[in-house]
Recover the amino acids of this structure.
C-alpha cells in the first residue's frame, strides 16, 4: 500500500505538500501539484477513505436496510439509491433484514458503527408502536429516510 510518505520521499517534498497537492490546496504551485498527482498515479496511490473521514468527519457512505432484494420493487429502489449515491460520490452499504426486527436493529447498529452519513430503511413490521433503534437514530440525529 502506497502512503503519502512514500510519494513525498520520491518527490523530495514533505508529506504535507503531497497531502495539499492531492487535495488541490491553493498554496501549492500548479507545477508541483501536477508532478505529485502524476507520481501518485504512477505509484498506484489510492486515498484512504477512512483517514479522510477522520479529518472531514464524513464517510461519504450511506446505509440501506431493506426486507429482501428478492422483491423486484425493492430491488429497483435500491438500484435508484445506489445510482444517485454514486453520482454524488457516495458509497452504499446494503443489508437485508428478512423482516426480522432483531436483524434490522443489528444492521442499523452496524451502519452506525461505520459512521454512515445517512440511512435508507424499509422498516420491519412491528406490533409495538415504538422501536428503540428508531428512537436512538432520532437522538443521534442521523439523517434517515
Amino acid at each position: 500500500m502506497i502512503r503519502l510518505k512514500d510519494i513525498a520521499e520520491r518527490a523530495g517534498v514533505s508529506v504535507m505538500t503531497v497531502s495539499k497537492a492531492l487535495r488541490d490546496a491553493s498554496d501549492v504551485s500548479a507545477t508541483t501539484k501536477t508532478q505529485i498527482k502524476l507520481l501518485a498515479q504512477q505509484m498506484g496511490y489510492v486515498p484512504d477513505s477512512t483517514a479522510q473521514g477522520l479529518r472531514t468527519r464524513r464517510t461519504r457512505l450511506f446505509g440501506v436496510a431493506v426486507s429482501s432484494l428478492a422483491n423486484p420493487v425493492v430491488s429497483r429502489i435500491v438500484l435508484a439509491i445506489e445510482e444517485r449515491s454514486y453520482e454524488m460520490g457516495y458509497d452504499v452499504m446494503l443489508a437485508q433484514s428478512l423482516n426480522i426486527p432483531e436483524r434490522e436493529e443489528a444492521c442499523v447498529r452496524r451502519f452506525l458503527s461505520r459512521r454512515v452519513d445517512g440511512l435508507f430503511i424499509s422498516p420491519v413490521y412491528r406490533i409495538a408502536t415504538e422501536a428503540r433503534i428508531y428512537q436512538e437514530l432520532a437522538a443521534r440525529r442521523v439523517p434517515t429516510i
User: Anything to note?
Assistant: The chain has two domains: 4-47, 55-140. Residues 4-47 form one domain. Helices lie at 4-11, 15-22, 30-43, 49-56, 72-87, 101-113, 132-140. The CA atoms of residues 31 and 84 lie 35 Å apart.
